[in-house]
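Good morning,

Attaching, inline, the backbone tokens for the sequence recovery test we're adding to the shared suite. The designed sequence is right after.
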């Protein structure tokens, strides 16, 4: 398996994990009081937007030329790391 396939599989797995976390957060938000619910849904929307951006970057990565893979790969991995930190921060608000 080449580097691009490994990167693609790794990012897809992380996106699946993010999707599961968003679903869990939505369930917790739905059980919250009205005032907190609005705050939770705002955080969820921010996370979803970041997640969708990574999904688009992954599609660009798959369609890019070999010479562009390294730059795009670094960008995707950086975005995944930032989103993971955002999830960790948001999760502290949900607990």
């Amino acid at each position: 398996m080449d580097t691009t396939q490994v990167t693609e599989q790794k990012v897809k797995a992380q996106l699946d994990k993010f999707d599961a976390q968003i679903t869990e957060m939505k369930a917790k938000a739905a059980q919250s009081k009205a005032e907190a619910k609005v705050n939770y849904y705002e955080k969820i929307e921010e996370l979803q937007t970041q997640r969708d951006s990574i999904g688009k970057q992954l599609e660009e990565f798959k369609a890019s030329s070999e010479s562009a893979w390294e730059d795009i790969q670094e960008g995707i991995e950086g975005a995944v790391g930032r989103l993971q930190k955002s999830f960790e921060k948001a999760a502290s608000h949900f607990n």
